[in-house]
Specification:
The protein is mainly alpha-helical. It is built from 16 helices and three strands. Strands 2-1-3 form a three-stranded antiparallel sheet. Helix 8 packs antiparallel against helix 11 and helix 8 packs parallel to helix 16.
């Protein structure tokens, strides 16, 4: 596909359009009469009642009554929020329907009304109303930046301009499915050990606060010296009983403060990204995931006809790690000056030699998008294997830690009883 040059003024205008705040879409219930005079009714999302009437007249319906629907009490009708996996599923559904010859507006209507989530239904019907009003699909999607990012909208726009929207939607669906699958694997790899450690800490804390004091009261009537290990555990228990509230409050405050810091500080997020890459096992997994995201995004955007420099900018934002984002932006600057991408990647020092060599082959053969897609497939499979290996490695390790913690507490509590039995 030929790469289309983008006029700077048009690009600046598009960015300003993205930044502009989209008008609020409201839900209206309407009643009217069709061309045969039969009464019909339904619901529609639009900015004003006048636009609802205009849409109905275009469909050959004479509006009789248009009324804004009241928001449900306590927001009960909103349901669960729209998640990235919902967007990935929608991408596949719209691509399938378009390839089957279903018109775009009808596709949105079918997918929206058939969705179990009210939030997804409202989103898709709102986009459908904008398309019916004469807007392009890309412009309609840009009114919902939380659900459809710039990359998604840019790819849709490229498909509309090239007249191959069906193929582009299929490409977008594949991209979203693979990226969400990769995110799910990384989340699984990071969440599992953290969840088990949290459970271990909570169980240990409950034993120290609730169970150990019961044994301590029993030991006080023995009138004999307790083993050093038992005294050590009782000391920790006494400290936690006296200060559990302060410890809990400090932990909650620290977690909330750190979360706010990550949310509000780009530097903090960047530092965390770079620190996580240095962790044993997990760091290697994150390295492979970043390479896979870079290759998948760059392959999809470049194959869609997006110029290489702009495709690199999109790949930088989608890499998911500050170290790779900065490296890719540096590569973009060097490619802009005329340097080959494989040489720029090599000088960055973050990409494996195999990736650099495969990109070099792709540049020489003129099939860089296909080569990047192969790189993405390779590294996505490596991430999958690494997650399975990490789970297999962590399970016995976590069980050992739990055994030492809980078993140590039990031994500490029963050791005086064993000693008494030996004396008797």
């Amino acid at each position: 596909m030929a790469v289309k040059a983008i006029n700077k003024n048009a690009k600046a205008a598009k960015k300003s359009t993205k930044a502009a705040k989209a008008p609020k879409q409201n839900q209206y219930g309407w009643e009217g009469a069709d061309k045969k005079g039969q009464k019909v009714k339904g619901e529609m999302y639009a900015e004003t009642p006048a636009l609802v009437k205009a849409h109905l007249r275009k469909q050959g319906i004479s509006p009789i009554k248009v009324q804004k629907k009241a928001a449900p009490l306590f927001g009960g009708g909103k349901g669960k929020p729209v998640e990235p996996k919902d967007i990935a599923m929608f991408s596949r559904q719209i691509a399938t329907m378009m390839k089957a010859g279903v018109p775009l507006v009808q596709s949105f209507d079918i997918i929206g009304k058939g969705n179990e989530k009210a939030s997804v239904e409202n989103l898709l019907l709102s986009v459908k109303a904008d398309i019916e009003a004469g807007n392009t699909m890309a412009d309609s999607l840009r009114k919902h930046p939380k659900e459809f990012d710039d990359l998604f909208c840019d790819l849709v726009e490229a498909g509309e301009q090239s007249g191959a929207l069906e193929n582009m939607l299929d490409r977008i669906a594949t991209y979203k499915e693979k990226t969400e699958a990769l995110k799910s694997k990384i989340k699984k790899a990071l969440t599992y050990p953290v969840a088990v450690v949290v459970v271990a800490v909570v169980v240990t804390a409950i034993l120290l606060v609730k169970v150990v004091p019961q044994f301590r009261d029993i030991f006080q009537g023995f009138g004999a010296d307790l083993p050093a290990f038992t005294l050590f555990v009782i000391g920790i228990s006494d400290f936690m009983v006296a200060n559990w509230f302060y410890m809990l409050a400090t932990t909650v405050v620290a977690v909330v403060a750190y979360s706010r810091l990550l949310q509000n500080s780009k530097d903090a997020r960047d530092r965390q990204d770079k620190v996580l890459l240095k962790f044993p096992v997990i760091g290697e997994l994150l390295h492979k995931a970043a390479v896979a995201k870079f290759a998948r995004t760059l392959s999809t955007t470049f194959a869609a006809g997006v110029p290489l420099v702009e495709a690199l900018e999109s790949a930088a934002g989608a890499s998911g790690n500050a170290l790779y984002r900065d490296a890719i932006l540096k590569i973009k600057d060097e490619v802009t000056t005329g340097m080959q991408m494989n040489l720029a990647m090599q000088s960055s020092g973050v990409f494996p030699n195999m990736v650099v060599q495969m990109v070099a082959i792709g540049e020489e053969s003129g099939s860089i998008d296909a080569m990047l897609s192969k790189i993405a497939d390779i590294y996505e499979q490596e991430v999958d294997d690494a997650v399975d290996g990490l789970s297999a490695l962590l399970e016995p390790l976590i069980m050992s830690v739990l055994g030492v913690l809980v078993g140590g507490l039990i031994i500490a509590m029963y050791l005086p009883i064993f000693q008494m039995g030996q004396v008797v």
